[in-house]
Amino acid sequence: MHTVCEEAKCPNIADCWQRSTATIMIMGDICTRSCGFCAVKTGKPIALDPFEPQHVAEALKSLSLKHVVITSVDRDDLPDGGAEHFAQTISLVKKQCPQTMVEVLIPDFKGQSDSLEKIFNAKPDVLNHNLETVASLQKQVRPQASYQTSLSVLARAAQAGLVAKSGIMLGLGEQEEEIQQALQDLKEKARVSILTIGQYLRPTPQHLEIKKYYHPDEFEHWREYALGLGFEHVASGPMVRSSYHKALKTPKNNGD
Ligand code: SF4
Hints:
By secondary structure, the protein is of the alpha/beta class. Helices cover about 35% and strands about 20% of the residues.
């Protein structure tokens, strides 16, 4: 089983694992896209393992986590982007781990309605999809994705009655008014409830340059700004990552 915690060299691994939460990556560890900030390998993915959904559910049952984030690489090589496989995994995990909060951090499935509906109908507790950065930097930061497609994925999740979550990184060269616009769009256009804001950290010299390190006070400013826009939960800080769920209180985990 691949964990993003290890694959993406996440700085929060010790804290999360101690809290009985982890992020699982399904559909292999090779992505069909090449985002400029991401440490995951890009290339020709391997064939899907039809038994993976069952194996993941069994493994998580043995771990009895409080909170699991299921994510995946982008599988643009598959007709439905892997949506059916992803949906099966959600359903089996929810069935076999009723006490575990199931959050999914999904690709955009190229905005395809059929694929997104498969995911929405599996009823994850939280639907997470990252906007990652401001509109003007999308092409540079995530060339195969788009600002409008991501907003539309989130808006459709909220419309389907799911708790929508998203995240952005700071430090890639964004301007203050651009951050404001991105947060307003996430709240007003996409009806996102949960937001994460973190510092971009460069995985290797081959990845995008860090243009600025934000001070913790600046993260606190953006946390208050976002709460002022009406987001229910905001985690904002240098080490905050999108599957970092410390801000989230739900009936299933009472916020611990
Ligand atoms: S789509 Fe996701 S896994 Fe693939 S390169 Fe981009 S951020 Fe990384």
